[in-house]
Amino acid sequence: MSHKVFLGYRCKLVLAFDVGTTFSGISYSIFEQDEEPEVRGVTRFPADEHRNGKIPSVIYYDQQGNVRAVGAETTRECIYDTAQDKGWIKVEWFKLHLTPETDAAKLVKDKLPPLPLNKSIVDVLADFLRYLFQCASSYIKGAHVNGRDLWQSIEEDISFVLAHPNGWEGSQKFQMGQAAVLGGLIPDTKAGYARITFVTEGEASLHFAIQNGLPLKDMKEGDGIVVVDAGGGTIDVSAFSKDGTLGQDEFKEIGIAESHFHGSIFVSIHARAFLDNYLADSTFVNDLDHIVSCFDTTTKLRFRSDDGPEYIKFGFGRDNDYAHGIRFGQVKLDGSDVREFFRPSVKCIIDAIEEQWKSAHGNVTHVVLVGGFAANDWLYNEVHKAFKLFRLDIVRPENEVNKAVSDGAIFFYFKNSVQHPKSTAECLVLPFYASLDPEVPTKCSSRQITRLSGRIMIPKRFGTTVPSLRRMQPPKKDSKEVRLRFRYESKVEISSITMIFSRYHREPPFPQWPDLKNRTYQDFGSTTISLENARFQSLQRKISGQQGTYYQVDWEIILLLSLSEVMLDYGWVEDGVEKRYSELFITKIGSDLDGRTHIATISAPEYCLRFPEIFN
Q1: In the record, which residues are listed under signal peptide (predicted)?
Q2: Of 53, 210, 235, 370, which residue is most buried, by most CB within 10 angstroms?
Q3: Same domain, 218 and 196
Q4: In what order do the strands lie in the sheet with 426-434?
Q5: 16 close to 180: Cβ distance less than 8 angstroms
Q6: Cα torsion for 367, 373, 375, 376, to the nearest 10°?
């Protein structure tokens, strides 16, 4: 695909970080005036002998919480002994601690290695992002002519693309934004957060596939594609179809993106459970951690068939236990046993593809497998066999599938090729609408209340619909403001006002009145305006009404919408002059703003604003 030439007056750097459960990678592109941008990868990391472009997502901390080794450094032969002697704490699979709280996630989190004491997931992620940023800086300085001068000219205005699993929403992105600040990627300002773009791993993988192996010329109008990003922790599955009305390489989303906890680490978990039982009465059971580690780096990667035996080489020629199939430092396993380690993950992938094929709003003709787990030949062959009769074309791009997300994130930044369906437009739940409205259903009239000002109102009717602006090009160049006016009344002086952000799922057209009983919306974040703060004290007015004295607050919510983010300002009028203040964007439910600037971007397309039920 030919990308638009960057027309700025100076160079601009875009860095994409793919923080995976087991391995992580960095891709980047330097936009230079009058030159077509090129996607490149960071291929040199400290202590990385393999130089395959990805490093382990592992950190060692000492007892004081200081970082002692990161990434490929953690695989050096001396690290294990040093860690044992000095009591260092190994942290791995930490990404999954960010996963939204669901029943499935709780089961997974119970199996995760614990975080160090006094370290939150944001702290750990910040340490890892800081390391990736340092690696990117060192690589670019050394890989480009006048690299140090180049870095110095662009380091204060770097744009970051952060990939995340399908299904991660406001809370997870807010924490990722916090980690980016703590890790030194961006300052804790509105301009700083504006330099971050989020992309789902499913969409990033689609953009990678468009560039690497997806037969666009053979695809007809309306042909669908299921993208499977098989990673270390999750299996992310998304469905899209080619839409010629939007452009030659444009797609629209035709299914509900899903994320399943069946990545490659679960193959290792099953292997560990088997070996723990198999070697229970062997002296080598004490080497279980090392044996499983060797399984991860050799046997798991090369497994192709269950017809013959498989071996895990972990020791030396003198290491033998014939009763347990250990000879010359190798554990001999039946291929059928190793197959069972893989079976739950492969079944999950096949079932997820079939579900997308059946439920997608389009004719699915292709399946694209990407991600480090997808490189396993047995997995690929099993998926291919499962859908042979379905006449689905199973594609595994020739280029490194383990770089699909980071490279695809850069391509996403160049050109968002996905049109999301109309059912994912944003909508806003306004607090009160007049009951005299002829469209008010009879069943809602019983909920009417009389405000202190004498206005007759009914709470919680859906109001203004804000269109999704995912397709604005180029990214962040333009934005659109949407203004919404609010009024709050109270008998007592108002100290703060809380707004709750909700997510709402329904096919269009959106109903005027939400189903409050069945709760068709889901809360996922909130923000609080503190009127005790000097900047907001002018908002409150004391009024003498028919029911006595009351307090009234008038203000505006100003939504700033761009390619993939929504930001938000407060606005009010003071002495005839408009004032504006930026103080959010998403905090966890129940948390209050403490006077610091809290801004984080959240991805479109579907978000709601509503008020808590507070009637005075």
Answers
A1: 1-16
A2: 370
A3: no
A4: 426-434, 456-466, 449-450
A5: no
A6: -110
